[in-house]
Amino acid sequence: xxxxxxxxxxxxxxxxELRTQTEDEKVQGCYIARGVxxxxxxxxxxxxxxxxxxxxxxxxILMKHVDVYVMYAVLEESWVSVYTVELIDDxxxxxx
Length: 96
What we know:
Layout: E1 6-9, E2 15-19, H1 23-28, H2 58-64, H3 85-95
Antiparallel strand pairs: 1-2
């Protein structure tokens, strides 16, 4: 998925950097910052990382504080976007 940042991981699978995908990664694939985040409320006190389009970049905030919040990359085959309170409520009904 060429428009997403490439997540760089160490030998233990811990994320340590976001970067623009290389041409090889665009073809071969790579971990991307597009997934599930389990967040400690403390992350909300960090300064937001505002992206070019005005969106606040959660992956960028997390990567700036990776020394406090260790993250592991997880390979997923598919996902469902949940980005509003209403969608969270819908998912809670489906999964309970």
